[in-house]
Design brief:
Blueprint lengths: L4 E2 L1 H9 L7 E4 L3 H5 L3 E2 L4 E2 L15 E4 L8 H10 L4 E4 L2 H7 L5 E2 L16
Parallel strand pairs: 1-6, 2-4, 2-5, 5-6
Antiparallel strand pairs: 3-7
Length: about 120
Amino acid sequence: MSVPRITKEALKTRLEEDGGTPPVILDARLKYPYEHSTVMLPGAVRVNPDDPSAGLSTDRDVVAYDSDPEELVSAPVAAALIRKGYRAAALEGGLAAWVTAKFPTDEKDAPKQAPPKAGGLKG
């Protein structure tokens, strides 16, 4: 199944529209990237990528994003939602594209611990 993508510019416009119903933004990042980040898209809701439809209504568009520029998590999340009757898309380029464009973000809790330093693991 080909999953629809939405560009960062198109999503930003949808979020800023007056009078329109903005899409539900799903943060579908895997646990490690999510926990070790301090930002998320404005108004995003954290979801379990294995069960993204929990608590969602089918009456609004849905945009999923992740930390991968190739949408390796968000595209399958969007595909699963489409199969369940949602109007869903993946954010093209993910969170990195949004942040690189210096678009607004919401702060989230500070990371729980720093990621391991390169070469810091001994085998």
